[in-house]
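quick one, 271 residues, struct below
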Amino acid sequence: ELGKYEDTTEAGMTTLGQALDRYLIEKTPDKKGDSEESYRIGKIKRYNIAKCSLSELTAGKLTKFRKEIAQDTSNSNANRYVSLVCTCLKTVINEWEIYLPANPCNKIGQLPEPAPNEDRITPDEEHRIMVEARKSRNIYLPCIITFGIELGMRRGEITKLRWEWIKGHTISIPDTKNGTTRTVPITPRIEEELNKLPRHISGRIFGNMKSFRDAWENCIKRADVDTNFHRLRHEACSRLDEKGFTIPQICAISGHKRWESLRRYTHIKPE
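---
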């Protein structure tokens, strides 16, 4: 009678899993982290919440799902999974015009996440990592690690590098995570490692991501260093800061757009 009837039929016939499948086809391919998002969508669909219809999705069910996935991984990962669901629901409502009485994501917050790890990579740890890297069957590993610890480059940026991108003592990285082209200096250590590598007909400097990941995991295990590759990015930013580089200079090398993002990567030794 009031003319305010909203039809929830489509929302009742569409499950969260089906909405995520459509999101995977229409939205995920346009993102930089498409492979990671594809993996997360696949994992969400293994939980019971994926069978829930959109009209029956509540804040309570999302909170329960978040608790389950936090037990399997961590609070940080759980927040990322729920954030992906929320982004999908916003697309459902705003772009696909599937009516929902309310977005359940608006009623839940985030789980507390641990403070950033301020541990630095010591010279001894770096030495042990490089010794084991040179023993690896992956001949590219020492150079990849050097790129990481000298310039703080992301793993994906390093593994896609090509020889034609090198101009003198710099290398340009097109289409980075931030969507821009970034030019970084080639330090003497990096130049030394590059000179040891053979040229492949494909033009790529390094091998594929999977072979690198396996080689890296074996390397740090043999070196007995509890770390991950992303920690090299933290270490590089901290070293550049200690060497007297300004914030704009560090951002230009590391690719950070905001000082707030860079701050959590920079850990200065009081000594």
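The longest helix spans residues 75-94.
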